[in-house]
Specification:
Length: about 400
């Protein structure tokens, strides 16, 4: 044996005095990390997901719009312009003949084409008409409390402003898209509240109690998930009485969407509870005499609430798409209620879409909101994953 051969790893002792304020390995920054709650850790990881953060800002902007749709919309959503049926979108310009004017539009004039039996709209580029901001416009009933007429942007005093064109009745499509955001965005939140409540209740019972309760709930979930989704939506929506008011139809559609979406969440809750119910803190709560309801609500569910929020966030787009699909097929919300699905219902006529493609504009906010929820949900799911 060679006497100089090393018999093991060389041990080195750092002779420097210990500095408790050092960053590594037990400094103040790491101490904040180790002492942080699961919510704070989730937030720190979520902030590093730039796409999810950007999607969150998009959603915040959309939902801040909901209480003030009447203010943002240039026109009242029901106002008709008889001289501008199927008018194409008006572009917003800043410069006229090389001179800065500010945001303005060119007025429309139309001639009736006897060959195509259509109105041909032409912009009069000799008369720029400046838009008005924070101005008095069409009156509206603000949240049923008072009558107001303040608008963020108004058409020129002697002109029109059709940013997304008009429909077959001459109604401004952009104003109707803005107004439809209130119903389409709200129905997702209300629907997920119903789904969330049912999923937590039945999933909590199945995961904590187990036994025959778990078997019964699992068989019900399997039956619901085996049913074809779209035909079931159509059947339940068709069962709503035709004489119901728009508000009752809204809540009926919301409950239908919530009742059909809870099984997936219930299974996620069940699987988490099955893993957590054997933990020491649950045993300690049981020995101290805590009730089953308290153990589930105060000890088990908060331990994976971040995962539930991520799951709920990913479920909201399906609610929005469900309402859009039902209203598009004429079995969901109906006029005078305005939603993105109701607006797309008018685009069922392929001939009308071919001649007036701007009727498909309501699909743009649907795509933006669904993508934003999906990106934000992915970011939340990654942030809530302790192994990510």
């Amino acid at each position: 044996m060679t006497t100089g051969m090393a018999l093991g790893p060389k041990h080195v002792v750092d002779q420097r005095p210990f500095d408790p304020g050092a960053t590594e390995p037990f400094g103040a920054e790491n101490e904040d990390f180790y002492r942080a709650s699961s919510w704070r850790l989730t937030w720190w990881k979520f902030k590093r997901h730039r796409v999810a953060v950007a999607a969150s800002f998009v959603l915040i902007a959309f939902y801040l719009l909901v209480p003030f749709v009447e203010v943002v919309a240039p026109y009242n959503q029901t106002k008709r312009h008889g001289d501008f049926l199927y008018a194409p979108p008006q572009g917003v310009h800043l410069f006229h003949e090389g001179r800065f004017v500010g945001p303005f539009v060119y007025p429309y004039r139309f001639t009736f084409n006897l060959e195509t039996f259509r109105r041909d709209y032409v912009s009069d580029t000799t008369r720029p008409q400046p838009l008005r901001f924070l101005c008095e416009g069409d009156p509206y009933d603000f949240w049923g409390m008072r009558t107001a007429s303040l608008h963020l942007v108004c058409p020129p005093a002697d002109g029109t402003f059709f940013l997304a064109g008009t429909d077959r009745l001459g109604r401004d499509l952009f104003s109707r898209i803005i107004s439809g955001a209130r119903i389409s965005l709200t129905i997702g939140l209300v629907g997920i509240a119903v789904s969330f409540t049912l999923g937590l209740f039945f999933g909590g019972l199945a995961g904590y109690l187990g036994g025959w309760v778990d078997n019964v709930i699992q068989r019900v979930i399997e039956i619901l998930r085996s049913l074809p989704e779209l035909p079931l939506w159509l059947a339940l929506s068709a069962a709503l009485p035709a004489n119901w008011s728009p508000i009752l139809v809204f809540f009926g559609i919301t409950i239908i969407l919530g009742l059909l979406d809870w099984p997936g969440l219930a299974r996620a809750v069940r699987s988490k509870l099955l893993a957590l119910r054997e933990e020491d803190f649950v045993r300690a709560a049981e020995l101290m005499g805590a009730s089953k309801t308290r153990i589930i609500s105060r000890h088990l569910i908060p331990n994976f609430m971040s995962h539930l929020i991520a799951s709920a966030t990913l479920s909201i787009p399906s609610m929005i798409l469900g309402e859009t699909a039902l209203s598009f097929l004429g079995l969901g919300l109906r006029p005078p209620v305005t939603s993105w699905g109701v607006l797309l219902n008018e685009a069922q006529n392929l001939a009308a879409v071919q001649l007036h493609p701007w009727l498909l504009f309501p699909i743009v906010p649907v795509v933006l909101v669904v993508l934003a929820f999906s990106f934000m949900g992915d970011g939340l799911r990654d942030a809530a994953d302790p192994y990510h």
